[in-house]
Amino acid sequence: MWRDRSISYAVHNANKRAIALDADTTEDVEFFWDLVGRSDIIFQQPDAPLIPVSPEEIAAAHPHLIVVALTDFGLTGPRRDWIGTDAVLGALIGVSVQSRLPGQEPLSPPNGIVTESAAVLTAWSALAAYYRRLGTGRGEFIDASTYEAAIQSVDPLFGIRGTASGGRPPWEEEYEQQDTRHLYPIFRCKDGYVRMCVLATRQWESLLSWMGSPPELADPELGSLVARQQARDLIDTVVGGFLRTRTATELETEAERFGVPLARVQTPAQVFDCEQFGTRRAFVRTPLDDNGQTIALANGFVEFDGERAGIRRRAPQHDEHRAEVLRELADIDKRPTDSQGGGPPGALPFAGLRVLDLGVIVVGAEIGRLFADLGAEVIKVENRNFPDGSRQVAPADTMTVSLAYGHRNKQSLGLNLRDPRGIELFEELVRGSDVVVSNFKPGTMAALGLDYERLRTLNPGIVVADSSAFGPTGPWSERMGYGPLVRAATGLTSLWRYPELEDGYADTSTIYPDNVSAIISAITVLAALIKRNGDGIGARVSVSQAETILAQLSSRFAFASISGDDCAYPSPDVHVLQCAGRDQWCVVELRDPRDSAKLAEVLGCRTTERAALVNTAINWFAHHPASEAMSTLQDAGVPCGVVQRPTDLMRDPQLLDRQFLRPVYQPHGPGVLPATGAPARFASLPQIDLLPAPLQGQDTRTICRDVLRLSEAQIDEAARAGVIQLCDSRSRTDESQDHE
Fold it and tell me: CB 616: neighbour CB atoms within 10 A?
């Protein structure tokens, strides 16, 4: 009955069908194996199998299957049996310490973000293996660790990062997150709070104009961001006084008119009233129980050819679709295991695909990188006159850590798309490519004459992916896509904070949801490529970063749609406890009374009454080193994790045992970097190459010669005319070969 189902069940099982099997009956066991044999992908938790059979046994019985074994820490390693809840994993992957404000204890991100993001990367791994099967006929066994997936998807310390990183490698010293609230300050207004992101000089000038040019801020030196940071107390006083007298709605309207980046800091309950999300049908109501009660569910992550890929059916009731599935099985032939394509058995999934990567900063870089890592030929198209924001922090002949992570395994083509001849060369590339990726402000590609309608006339099979802050349509579609403003507008900022502090907003150091939005984009591109295998027709896919947040917090929004009070959302019983030693901490999550009883036994506490148990725990942890406390509790079956810093991750025995990090050499800057490899552990996939990122325009000559078929004379003439941009890459190539 619906009344027996939780909101979480309703959220996470929408669009699915359900059957219930009894492992003690021969009929249901046969039904299970028949269903498995006609499936494509199996997700299984080895510690809770539907039928008493392991994922390895399923894979051995059906070599065509993609079998994904889902565990918290992986099937191997010294911590393979540990428990990883959302809060515990948030501590272990470093997010809790990154969120921390000076003088405060580490802070867990809003519940759900860590495991939701890890699930997205696991889906990417499964679909990549399935795409490979289409070419080879070969299945795959995937050992999917939620811990490892979370490290790569939430706020990666070993990946491309935005301005929140401060430009320094986090592992070079004992990492303490800097307080960056002054970059994206939050001010009180007449009916709540607003956040402002005034970074560029022109934005500062627009703010002054809006405020009527206050004499206190007339110093022309304040046009510099550095100068404004030094004078932030004065600026905050003057700006805060101006904003305090207006409502949030008035401020948003006026700020947009003057070109000042500003957003209301909303709660989840307030998000439902936003015109942008209403216009785009970001939420849809579905039944919750038999009495007609409904809840609002986030309506999917993406748009596919302009149509939202969202909620199509409510979550199923117990065994609701058994008869339906049985009828379908009777009409389906046995699953073929032969190849549908011609890819070699030992190839990476995307060998033979060509991706044109126009992406910038984090989201754009990551979409291309995900394809490049798994074998695609990815050409980063860039122009030194309008450099990728990640390039702007370093000279053209050097490489930052962030660039190295975001653009490994790619080639760089220097091409001027503001020149008609540059457009012609790009269009020629499109004719021979499979995917075009961009994350410019909506309308930019159309302004260049390169919208989807134009690109598909050149290549009907092209898949075009765009990503933006609020989506390609709606009244906010052209708003500036700063991550802090997106998080404020979607309710995330109001949740990611120290609730006892008025200025305790702690999301300024994160780049979430950039990385997970990129993974969602890549998944959708891959789905379009799989569809293209059947009909030969490409697609346009669009991802909104704001709607990624709404979907990953869907349980909280669903609760708010019923109660009207998101503050009453049931939170997990999480405790951040200081341990022996300098600034060492553990996070403990008590899921149910059994966890409390186990903790009481470890602590020698005679009661599970909460106040007494917590007081005993505070004293016990204060006398134990963090790693020892974590091991003791985990061995007793209590979820516990050390609040790790980047250097801790590099020494983590579980990650070392599973060879999670690999060295990659990046010349012209960082040197040897610790890098993640595959998104999960694949049983038969060849080892992924980790080739260094290119300098800007490094591969221009090679691409022009080998792909565009230009002669050397034509290449030199185009370079002189500024149509293409060259870079001497010989020194980098020679240097990198010494470190293969």
Answer: 18
Residues in Cβ contact with 420 at an 8 Å cutoff, skipping those fewer than 6 apart: none
What is the predicted pLDDT for the residue at 282?
A: 97
Cβ–Cβ < 8 Å for 580, 625: yes
CA-wise closest residue to 242 among 222, 259, 220, 217: 217
Of 160, 144, 70, 79, nearest to 679 by C-alpha is 144
Handedness of CA 522, 524, 527, 528 (dihedral sign): negative
Rounded CA gap, 181 and 102, in Å?
Answer: 11
Residue 1: is its pLDDT beyond 50? Answer: no
Parallel, antiparallel or unpaired: strands 671-676 and 661-666: antiparallel
**What confidence score (pLDDT) does residue 390 get?**
78
Any idea which of 217-221, 247-251, 399-403 has the lowest mean pLDDT? 399-403
The first and second tokens of residue 669, run together, are 């800057």
How buried is residue 706: exposed, middle or buried, by Cβ count under 10 Å (0-12/13-18/19+)? Answer: exposed
What's the rounded Cα separation, in Å, for the pair 720 and 451?
Answer: 28
The distance in angstroms from the start CA to the end CA of the chain is 60
Select which of 514, 566, 595, 699 is catalytic.
514
Report which residue type is found at 71: T
Number of Cβ atoms within 10 Å of the Cβ of 130: 18
DSSP code, position 505:
B
Q: Are strands 411-415 and 435-438 parallel, antiparallel or unpaired?
A: unpaired
Q: Supply the pLDDT for residue 363.
A: 92
Single-letter residue type at 473: T
Under DSSP, the state recorded for 221 is: G
Known active-site residue 514: yes
The residues, ordered by sequence, that sit 6+ positions from 212 with a Cβ below 8 Å of its Cβ are none
What pairing do the DSSP bridges indicate for beta strands 294-298 and 283-287?
A: antiparallel
Contact 254, 198 (CB under 8 A): no
Closest residue by Cα to residue 473 from 539, 522, 525, 544? 544
Q: Is the pLDDT of residue 493 over 80?
A: yes
> What's the gap between Cα 634 and its chain centre?
28
Instruction: Give tens-digit pLDDT for 287-311.
Output: 887 777 889 999 999 999 999 999 9
- The answer to whether residue 345 scores a pLDDT higher than 80 is no
Taking alpha carbons only, the member of 373, 518, 405, 365 closest to residue 171 is 405
Residues 379-404: tens digit of each pLDDT: 999 998 888 877 876 666 788 888 89
What is the helix (H) or strand (E) element at residue 533, kind and residue range? helix 514-535
513 upstream amide cis, omega within 30 of 0:
yes
Q: What percent of the chain has pLDDT over 70?
A: 92
Contact (CB, 8 A) for 160 and 402: yes
pTM for this entry: 0.95
Contact (Cβ atoms closer than 8 angstroms) between residue 549 and residue 556: no
